[in-house]
Specification:
By secondary structure, the chain is an alpha+beta fold. It has one domain: Arylsulfatase, C-terminal domain. 18% of the residues lie in helices and 17% in strands. The chain has two helices and four strands. It has a four-stranded antiparallel sheet, covered by helices on one side. Strand 2 and strand 3 form a beta hairpin. The longest helix has 17 residues. The protein is globular and about 40 Å long. The model has no long low-confidence stretch (mean pLDDT 84).
Length: 123
């Protein structure tokens, strides 16, 4: 399993020393090579009707992209909006932030050899 030691952040959640993005993928009950291709059947939403997604935490931002074609991406400023009520990805003024976080998520996925990364559906 790919990963980094996050114990420093767990021991001191208020630390400002964490400088690397954190990425998580939700692929329901599919693992390893089962995730090489994004399913087009019911497996995409097999767990509580929640679709597969990737989540990137970078500094104060959380970026979410589901694996559903034409689904709206999400960005939340966790300092200004800890309840995640305002999706910054939907505003034109945050276009460069969206492009940056999307690229960073793809970069992190490539680092862990996520086979589906180049087959993600259009947003």
């Amino acid at each position: 399993m790919h990963g980094r030691d996050i114990r420093p952040s767990l021991l001191d959640p208020e630390t400002k020393s964490w400088s690397k993005p954190m990425i998580m993928t939700h692929t329901a009950r599919s693992y390893g090579s089962e995730t090489d291709l994004i399913p087009t059947d019911g497996r995409l939403t097999a767990a509580s009707n929640v679709p597969w997604y990737v989540l990137l935490r970078d500094e104060k931002y959380k970026y979410i992209r589901t694996f559903v074609e034409n689904e709206v991406e999400e960005i939340y400023d966790l300092e200004a909006d800890p309840e995640e009520l305002v999706n910054l990805a939907t505003t034109v003024s945050n276009r460069s932030l969206l492009v940056r976080l999307r690229a960073k998520a793809l970069e992190e996925l490539r680092k862990v050899d996520a086979k589906f990364v180049d087959r993600l559906p259009k947003t």
